[in-house]
Amino acid sequence: MFKKRIVVKVGTNVMTNRNNRIVGPILKNLVRQIAYLYERDIITILVSSGSAIAGKEVLGRSDEENPSVRRQIYSSVGQPRMMRHYYTMFHDYGMRCAQVLATKRDFAPGKYRQNMINCYEGLLKEGIIPIANEDDAVSLSMSMFTDNDELASLVADLVNADTMIMLTDIDGLYTGHPKHDSSKLLNEVKVHENVEKYVQESEKGEGEGRGGMESKLRIAKETACKNIPTYIANGKDEDIILDILNGKKVGTKFSV
Fold first, then answer.
1. Which residues sit in the known binding site?
2. Which residue, 256, 229, 248, 238, is CA-closest to 185?
3. pTM of the model
4. Which residues are annotated as a binding site for ATP?
5. Residues 180-237: pLDDT tens digits?
6. Residues comprising the binding site for substrate?
7. I need a surface site. Which of 22, 71, 158, 256 has the fewest CB within 10 A?
8. CA distances for 72 relative to 13, 17, 21, 22, 147, angstroms
9. DSSP string spanning 101-169?
């Protein structure tokens, strides 16, 4: 029986390079850390982005004009490609993994939620690493997650996780733009603290990047309020998951 359960969400910016290609060594390093914890009776539920990028690697440019349908196409093709990566890497450590696709509807109270609980509990009991992602092929606008950060939070609550870690391509939450010398990394944030102002200041004029950190901050606070300590940290650091669980001052921790 595993002593702890953790949820690790890895974003697209962590696992891709500047050319929007999946970086194999990053995934291997992630799996290595999960395997290390597994041997110490800590099991990980992995929430993984990357399926759309993986689909683009296979298909190249799509002629589909509808962006929603184009996303469905890329994700549908990319999902098995991502799972092949993970299956091979976990197999090298003598471990098994499984794909769990879901829409927001599946977390609503009732039979769908109970079915999700049964699925996760069954996998965890067997020592199988669940790899969660949105079911992009069938999800509609009303049943879509805001992003995989939201999915990770819902999964963490569903499985009564001890910790949730959101891996991104920056070291955590800063008091200003991460590239400015005057900005400082916040190692710990209490949910009642008004740190949203830092996101607004640091992301001003950054375009699409603004929503990403705003979402992470909101989700981190919501998850911490459920008594699940939550971290935002740099997934490209070699031992980031292990460092967090060993109590090192890395990333930004959110707690009540």
1. 9, 49, 136, 148, 168-169
2. 248
3. 0.92
4. 9, 168-169
5. 888 999 999 999 999 998 985 444 433 333 338 888 999 999 999 999 999 999 999 9
6. 49, 136, 148
7. 256
8. 20, 22, 19, 19, 15
9. EE-GGGGSTTHHHHHHHHHHHHHHHTT-EEEEEE-TTT--GGG--SSHHHHHHHHHHHTT-SEEEEEES
What pLDDT, on the 0 to 100 scale, is given for residue 71? 85
Answer yes or no: are the C-beta atoms of 49 and 15 closer than 8 Å: yes
For all residues of the chain together, what is the average pLDDT?
90
Per-position DSSP letters for 45-103, written without gaps between them: EEEE--HHHHHHHHH-S-----HHHHHHHHHHHHHHHHHHHHHHHHHTTT--EEEEEE-
Residue type, 80: P
Write the burial class of residue 218 (CB in 10 Å: 0-12 exposed, 13-18 middle, 19+ buried). middle
Residue-number span of the structural domain to which 161 is assigned: 4-255
Mean pLDDT of 153-163: 97
67-91 helix and 51-59 helix, angle to the nearest 10 degrees = 100
Contact 183, 25 (CB under 8 A): no
E strand or H helix at 197:
helix 196-202
Instruction: Provide the number of structural domains found in the chain.
Output: 1
**C-alpha 10 chain-centroid distance:** 4
Q: How far apart are CA 253 and CA 249, in angstroms?
A: 9
CATH number at 36 reads 3.40.1160.10
CA atoms within 13 A on the CB side of 7: 30
Q: What percent of the chain has pLDDT over 90?
A: 68
- Given a contact cutoff of 8 angstroms between Cβ atoms, the answer to whether 166 and 218 are in contact is no
